[in-house]
Amino acid sequence: MIKPFIFFIFFTSHFVFSQDIAGNYSPVESKCKLNLKINDDNTFTFSVGKVKNKGFLKVFKDSNVTYLDFTDGISGMYANDTISIQNSGNSMNKYTHFKECNEMYIHLVKKSYFDNLYSLLSCQKNLSDFVVSCKLSDIEKMIIEIPVKDNNIDQYNNLAYYLAKTKNGNQFAIIILKEIIKKYPHRTVAYLNLADSLWIAGEKEEASLNYKEYLSLMKSQKKDLNKVPKYVGKRIK
Fold it and tell me: Which InterPro entries does the UniProt record give (predicted)?
C-alpha cells in the first residue's frame, strides 16, 4: 500500500505523466470483463457491464516505476502500456476490488488509437449522424505509430470508408487513403474511394485525376468494367 506522505507528491506531479497513461485499457485475463478509460485530465472510469466507477487518478513516478492511485484503496503500477492491479488481498487483509474478475492480479493493456477508432466506428448504426472527435494530427500520428502494411491494409481501407460516411470524417479518410495509395499504388479500390472523398470535399480536379487512375487500373488489371460506377465517367469529363 502506498504511504500517505506520497499522496502530496501525487497531487504535484500527476499531470506530468498523464499523457502517456491516458487511453482505453482492456484485460489480458479472458474471464475478466473489466475495462478502464483514463482521460488526459486524469479522470478515469472503470466499467464492468453497465456498472461504472469514476474518479480522479493520482500518479507518482519513482525511478523507473510509475505508481497509480485510483482511490477507494485501488492502486496499481504502470509500465509498457500495461496497468497491473492487485485485485484481492491475503489472509491478513482480505478484500476484493472487482468481484467480476476472479483473479488475484488484473493486467489491463492499452488499446491503440487505431483499435479504439475502428471499434467505435464499426459498431455505429448510423454513421451519417456521427461526429468524429479527433484532429488531423491524431490521424497522422496514428499512421506513423501503426504504418499501413499487408496485415492491416483492409482494416485501414474499412476505417477510411467509415470515416468518409460520418458527418465530419471525410478529411480524415483522405489522409488514410493517400497513405494507402502511397504504400500500395496498384490498389484499385483506394483510388475510387479517394476520388469520392475528394469530390465531396470540393477538390474536383484532384478527384478527377484519381477517377482516371482508378479506371486505368481497372482496365490494365482486366477487371470487370461493369462494376465501375456510372458516375465515374461523368466526373472524369
Answer: TPR-like_helical_dom_sf
The DSSP letter of residue 147 is -
Q: In what order do the strands lie in the sheet with 51-56?
A: 51-56, 43-48, 34-38, 23-27, 105-110, 82-86, 75-79, 65-69, 58-62
C-beta of residue 154 within 8 angstroms of C-beta of residue 161? no
Write out pLDDT tens, residues 107-157.
Answer: 988 888 898 888 889 888 889 999 988 889 999 999 998 999 999 999 999
Q: For position 119, what pLDDT does the model report?
A: 84
Report the run of H or E that residue 175 belongs to, with start and end. Answer: helix 170-183
Q: Is 19 exposed, middle or buried (0-12, 13-18, 19+ CB in 10 A)?
A: exposed
Give the cell for residue 97.
476490488
92-111 CB burial, b ≥16 within 10 A, e <16: eeeeebbeebebeebbbebb
Helix (H) or strand (E) holding 42: none
Burial bucket for residue 127 (CB in 10 Å: 0-12, 13-18, 19+): middle
Give the list of residues 6+ apart from residue 192 with CB closer than 8 angstroms, or none. Answer: 210, 211, 214, 229, 232
Strands 105-110 and 75-79: unpaired
Structural domains present in the chain = 6-111 (2.40.128), 114-236 (1.25.40.10)
| Residues 208, 202: Cα–Cα separation, whole Å | 11
Express each pLDDT in 79-89 by its tens digit: 888 899 888 87
CA 17/CA 117 separation, integer angstroms: 23
